[in-house]
Amino acid sequence: MKQKNYYIIDFDSTFTQVEALDELVRISLKDNPDKEKIFKKIEEYTNLAMEGQLSFSESLAERVKLLGANKEHLKKLVTHLKKKVSKSFSRNAPFFKKHADDVLIVSGGFKEFITPVVKKFNIKKENIYANTFLFDSEGTIIGYDTANPLSQEGGKVKLMKELKLEGNLYGIGDGYSDFQLKESGHVKKFFAYTENISRNSVTSKADYITPSFDEFLYLNKLPGSISYPKNRIIAIVAGSVPEESVELLRQEGFTVVAEQEADEKTIQKAGILLVADKIILDSKQIKKATRLKVIGYFGHAQTELPVSFCTEKGIVIFDASKTSAKGANAISQRIIDFINRGSVQHSINFPSLQLTAVTKTHRIIHIHKNVPGVMAHINTVLAEHAINIDAQYLMTNPTIGYVIIDINKEYDKQLLKELKAIEHTIQFRVLY
């Protein structure tokens, strides 16, 4: 009999982008003249515990003493945290609905702010394990329930002993207390979560480093909102590209690597190339990046890049001559829209096509040589697999055909193999 899987997920800096107690003190001390001094002290206690240099119970006690918060502050915190859910968790909300019985939130934080934040993700109230505050008659926080195992050193381990869950347990978190679940043998695998913060003392001991929840789903062959984790898409930056443009790609979740730090293997795997003005690239250089899908050039690519060669290889180019008044961010945004949706509006070498995101269908991109019969072959393959097409777009120029297919039915891997194997195919990928 197949064993049940359980997903043990941390809250602070994992499910959310921030440490909730740190955010609560920002709210509660807003008008306190010593707020910066107190906040730094609380932040210090947080980091010492997360790095395993201070016991969790000592850290928690000291932080709560400094809070000076009440129920009204907690309401404001909840509103704030709902906007700070980690991006990759937000886009994978359907996973939590489907696995409502399998997901546990296990945190050294507090139910008073965790429960209302995770509620919309269909996480069951009884599957939320966290501390609880103690209040005085006026609603001011005066302490917490010290009998709760999660308020104590090694609290997550103690809780798992009490729960006695049978099956395969997977731990996901950013802190030392999360790693302790692996160290004690209570989880089968520990995934160090680094979307928001990376702690070497934790990542060095993890089974896997997961820069996003997409990566966790991908590694464990679980369905996600995107077919391929963005952190696995490498963006190489060549020359003095505007930092705000680079940061936009970084925030989107791509792995950004400076050209001087990229070895041959990294170049080969790169999917995005962001190039400063006046840097000249030839076909031999581009040929080394065998997975390259898109180039953003901060100049006039027609004179500095082998545009025809890129087109033949199915590589989309956006350049400064095609950007709007939005400035440096325009090129990066075009790249993001292409990777996320397949949009090629304002490309200099592909037929212009702007696409909106879809939420209830799968989107497939097929780039091929512009020769007769390819489109008919694509539709034949779809028909043989009884795939219902929700939407289909075809744009061509003298060199290539660019097809977007939205299908509203689950498909098998054989369909993808057959589409990829169609004669004259240049590039093929599944967006989601």
Automatic annotation (TrEMBL):
The catalytic activity, as recorded, is:
(R)-2-hydroxyglutarate + NAD(+) = 2-oxoglutarate + NADH + H(+); O-phospho-D-serine + H2O = D-serine + phosphate; O-phospho-L-serine + H2O = L-serine + phosphate
Task: Quote the PROSITE patterns the UniProt record gives.
Answer: ACT
ACT domain mapped to chain residues: 363-432
The residue range of the signal peptide is none
Going by the entry's taxonomy, the superkingdom of the source organism is recorded as: Bacteria
**Which coenzyme or cofactor does it need?**
Mg(2+)
Instruction: Name the UniProt key words of this record, in alphabetical order.
Output: Amino-acid biosynthesis, Hydrolase, Magnesium, Metal-binding, Serine biosynthesis
Cite the EC number. 1.1.1.399, 3.1.3.3
From the record, what ranges are coiled-coil? none
InterPro entries linked to this entry: ACT-like_dom_sf, ACT_dom, AHAS_small-like_ACT, D-isomer_2_OHA_DH_cat_dom, HAD-like_SerB, HAD-like_sf, HAD_sf
The record's SUPFAM superfamilies line, in alphabetical order, gives:
ACT-like, Formate/glycerate dehydrogenase catalytic domain-like, HAD-like
Q: Which pathway does the database say it acts in? A: Amino-acid biosynthesis; L-serine biosynthesis; L-serine from 3-phospho-D-glycerate: step 3/3
Function, as annotated = Catalyzes the reversible oxidation of 3-phospho-D-glycerate to 3-phosphonooxypyruvate, the first step of the phosphorylated L-serine biosynthesis pathway. Also catalyzes the reversible oxidation of 2-hydroxyglutarate to 2-oxoglutarate.
Name assigned to this protein? D-3-phosphoglycerate dehydrogenase
Q: Which organism is it from?
A: Niabella yanshanensis
